[in-house]
Each structure stands twice: as C-alpha cells, then as structure tokens.
Amino acid sequence: MKKILVATTALVAVTGFAVSASASEKIKLSVGGYMEQWAGITDQSDGFDNVNAFQSDTEIHFKGSTTLDNGIEVGAVVELEGETSGDQVDEQYLYINGSFGQIKLGEDDGAADDMGITAPAVGPVGVNDGDLTNWVSTYLPDTVPSDGDDPKITYFTPVMGGFRAGVSYTDSDKAKNAGGTGGNLGQGTTEGLPVVSAGLSYDHDFDGVALGLSAVGEHKGQGNWYGLGANVGLGNFTVGGSWGHIEDDYGINDRQTSGDETDTYDIGVAYAMDAAKVSLSYAYSDYGNRSSSSTVSNTGEMSTVDLGLAYQLGAGVAWKSSIFWFDDDNDNSAADNDGYGAVTGLRLDF
C-alpha cells in the first residue's frame, strides 16, 4: 500500500508540473547583442611588434523565457561570436528562476566571475581583465581569474538583506574529451580539472550611499584563488578596488610552478555627469602565472594605468576612449616591455 501511495504522489506531482508547463506560453527568442569597433595607436619597447590598429568585437544574443503556472520562470540564452578562430558559440545555458533563487545549466561564467567586484572603469581598454593585451604584448592583471565558459551547473540564492551567495561546479574536461581541448563538449579552460567556484556579495543603498562588497574564489586541482572587492557610490562619484591571490598550486599547467604565487590589486574612481562618464584606474600584479616561453619568464611585476571616457550619444550608442600606460618588468630582461597607447571607438547595444 505504501508503494502505491508513493507512486501515486509522484505521478500527481509530475502531472501537475506538466499541466503548468503546457498552460504556459511557448518560449520565443528575442535578438540582441552588441558591436564594438575600435581604432588605436600604441608605442611599446623595441622588439615588440605593434598590433592591428583597428579591432572589433561583436556578439549576437538570442534570449527567451516563459513563466509556468506555478510562477517558476524558465529561460534560455545563446550568445554567438561575430568573429572567432575558436568556438562560434560564446555562452549557452538555460536558467530557472523562482522563490528558491536561480539555477543555471550550460556553458557560462562561474559564480565567482558573476559576483566579483572590481575597480570602476568606463574606457574600452581598462586595467583589470580588460582589452590591454589586445593592443600591447604584456601580462594582464586579473583579480577574478575565473575558469571561463566551460559546461557547469550554478546556483544563486535569493537576495536576503542585500546578501546573495552562489556556487558553481565544472566537471573535469578530460572526462569529456581525452585531449582536454574541449571542442564541442566544452571550451577547455580548466586543464582537465574539476572546478568549484563560489561567491558572496552584498549590495545596499544607505540613504544615497551605495555599497557593494564581494568575496569570491575557486578551487581547481590542489590549489585555490580568492579575492575581495568593494565599490562605494556617493552622488556622481564611484570609488572602489579589488584584490586577488592565486596560489602556486592552482591548476596544473605551464603557468604555475612551486613558489610562484600571484597577487593583484586595482583601485579606481569614476565620475558621471549626465550622458558622460570618466574614470581613472590603476592595477598592479606581482605575478607568477604568466605563460612561459624561451624569452618570457612566468614571473615578474606589472603596473598599468587607464584614463577612460564614455559618452552616451543616443539609445544604444556610446562613444568610448582610453589613454593607457603600462610597465611590465619580467624576470627575463629580454621580455621587459613598457609603453602607452590611445584607443577610441563606438559601442552599439541592440
């Protein structure tokens, strides 16, 4: 009798969910995305070739969702790269929203990347995990060095008193592809190691003073990276910064060797005035995780400054510019590089 009751209860639950699903509206995808077109000039040390003076970044986004009769929202996101030599699809995942929070399943950034706070910056280059290395040959500071868009499952709690927590799990890429390169089964940024990504954030407005805090990190292989971030908004000003630490045994690749840890921080201030925003930001890395070669050591020190401008010309049209300076003091003097540059262009959001 107990087995019959359990089976009946399960059948009723499944039937109820199916009825809710069938009564909801079918998902229809909308089209969006962005296009960035940049022109820039740079000057760097002798021995380093200048890169293309014109660069672009374009993505087409397909998004859609439906709300079931029980109030649960189910949706999908697919992002296509406009130009790429690798995966044509950047991110693709489904999500489920409800009073329980949010669940994501697919190829997307992990919880740490989604929740990490860094210094404010509005220009097209930036100092923290931005486009600096698109223009010059140098190390890129990054206080939130997440595992990327590999297949994963993510859970975010509801916001409670300004607090929100999240956790992601990415399975071993080698379990899907013996070569560890990902292909259609994943984007292959985990070096064949499972990754646990987690974060805790706080966001609240205290009578006109906006405060944002984050504590994030990931565990991969036998090591970890972790970091802290904070932004404070007061009137038209936003001031903030972040710090991140990568342990010497985080992952297993040519970037990490025993004793070579990485510490990075950034600080910045931004000011908004009607349609215009300006920012000044600085980042520093004492790094031990750079890809090494015959001429480049995986250890050194890096400093960079970016003066950014963003002006909203109209709905979905922004003019952005950056003037930047950098100094990469690699432990192999043959790879030392420093210089400066200027980049300007348009970003279209649609």
CATH architecture classification name: Beta Barrel
For the residues shown, what is the average pLDDT? 87
The proportion of strand residues reads over 45%
Q: What is the structural class?
A: mainly beta
**What count of helical segments does DSSP give?**
3
Q: Alpha-carbon distance between the termini?
A: 59 Å
Number of strands: 16
List low-pLDDT spans: 1-21, 174-186
CATH secondary-structure class:
Mainly Beta
Radius of gyration (CA) equals: 23 Å
CATH level-4 homologous superfamily: Porin
**Which topology does CATH recognise?**
Porin
Domains, number? 1
Order of strands, widest sheet: 1-2-3-4-5-6-7-8-9-10-11-12-13-14-15-16
Query: Would you list the SSEs in sequence order as H and E?
Result: HEEEEEHHEEEEEEEEEEE
Query: Helix fraction?
Result: under 10%
The biggest beta sheet is recorded as: 16 strands, antiparallel, barrel
Q: What does the overall shape look like?
A: globular
Domain Porin: 7-329
Main location: membrane
Keywords: Cell outer membrane, Ion transport, Membrane, Porin, Signal, Transmembrane, Transmembrane beta strand, Transport
GO molecular function: porin activity
